[in-house]
Amino acid sequence: MAKKYILVVDDDPDLVETVAMMLESKGCEVGMAYDGIEGEESIKKRRPDLVILDIMMPRKDGYVLCNELKANEETRDIPVILLTAVGEAVPSTTYSHADGMATEADDYIPKPIDTESLWEAVSNLL
Amino acid sequence: MTLIPRLGGFRVLNGVDKVSVITSENAAPSPAELLRVLSEARINLAYLTYIHQASTWGLNIAVEPEGQNEVAGAVKSYPGLAFSVSPARAILSIFPHKKSLEITSSLLELFNHHQLELDGLANSPSAISVILKEKLVSSASRALFEPFTFRSYRSPADWKLAQKGKEQLYKEVVASYQEKKPKVYGLLCHEGQELESVRLEKKEISAFGKTFRKLSRLGLTLTFIATAPYREPGKEMLAFCLPRSRQLTGDLIPQGFLTQSLSPVSVFSMNGPHFGDRYGIANELLTNLEEKGINLLALSCTIASVTGVVHSRQLTSCIDAIRRCFDVPSVINKE
Predict the structure, then answer these.
(1) pLDDT tens sequence across A53-105
(2) By C-alpha distance, which of B314, B279, B309, B312 is closest to B294?
């Protein structure tokens, strides 16, 4: 069976690396991108089986990219897991858990993530 | 034909002061003790490297300028510590390095070629970071586009445009983490490594890219790299880890540079939320390692990670000590 190709998009390069290593150790192939624009370009070049997407990123945030993917017929069935570090603890932010749930993301995991729980969410969607 | 390495990106943290601390041969505090004082003063260390050197140790830290006086005060309060401050520095990090010696050598070679002085070197699992004078950031950023291409930016102008950040929001996010028990996303261990320590003039660090180029042709991977001050004025220690292989280093490292070669050692890396922006993380780690009697050989903290080197025989105790003070969901072991 072909390896599942997962794209990880986050502006923390160390987190991308950690998640990539976890996914590779589970037998997945991993693509990496460090902001929303790069993530979008990467998806156009190679369709992933799943996208793990941070919310708060420069240039294009995860909500916007997620909504664009879900609004496009060609990409709407790619499962998306949203990650975010923000929530009730950051009052001034426009990013909140409620916003996360309002997108059409297939799953939503608040940071700090637990890589094992993330894998559970990934395997449920693959 | 030489392939140009394609990277994901690079980032710059401007406006930091570099403080170098070195112990004398006499009794001096442990690095954990010094870091405890800095942690109590809530000083964030955006960058930290440490190298144990026989009976002494040296470290480089980067702090915001307002923290510099606190650091100097703390260091002065201990006999046996000497320090120097290099103001107006920046941290430039390229990623992902993929543990590639070729990428590290290309970075050092460009600094050497353009005669850009390098004040420090560190790695995280994804990034290689250098400390340089803030006024050199523009030239260094432009020069990066010679040996590398970047997926996100085609030119230095593209890069500048992409830097519009959300600083205030980041600060709030960091503050929301500060008082919580530190959680790490994962702990990664590389076993079967060899730690090489070389003594250099500061200006020779970038010239060392040539040696890394030779080592890269052997297909070796670089799991750790850091510099720290050496006890002789003007000299630096460069420590790095490669897979254990006795004949390589002796043949390829220029005579007179190599001061120590240790094996087997293990490299551990842990990445956590905003570790580069939160005070007390390194202190937490070093205090626990010290309490467990673990001899930390070298340390490199940059981006959002802590990477350390210990004797392989102490790796299990080291992981236990880390688990005592950090919430570690999983450990990934790599040979």
Answers:
(1) 998 887 788 888 999 999 999 999 999 999 876 544 444 444 455 555 556 78
(2) B314
For the record, the structure tokens of B178 come out as 């500060």
The CATH T-level fold of domain A5-121 is Rossmann fold (3.40.50)
- For residues A110 and A112, give the distance between their C-alpha atoms in angstroms, rounded to a whole number: 6
Q: In CATH, what number is assigned to the domain containing residue B67? A: 3.30.2130.10
Residues of A in contact with B176 (CB under 8 A): 85-87, 89-90
Looking at the domain assignment, is residue B329 inside a domain? Answer: no
The partner residue sitting opposite A17, judged by closest CB among B96, B162, B165, is B96
- pTM to 2 decimal places: 0.89
CA distance B176 to chain A (A): 6
Token pair belonging to A51? 């996208």
Residues from chain A that touch B126, judged by Cβ atoms under 8 A, are: 13-14, 16-17
Hey, are the CB atoms on B126 and A37 less than 8 Å from each other?
A: no
Residue span of the structural domain in which B55 resides: 8-161
ipTM over 0.90: no
Q: How many domains would you assign to chain B?
A: 1
What is d(CA A76, CA A80) in angstroms, rounded to the nearest whole number? 9
Single-letter code of the amino acid located at B127 = A
Nearest CB neighbour to A89, from listed B164, B176, B304: B176
Which of B6, B185, B190 is the best substitution to test chain A (most A C-beta atoms within 10 A)? B185
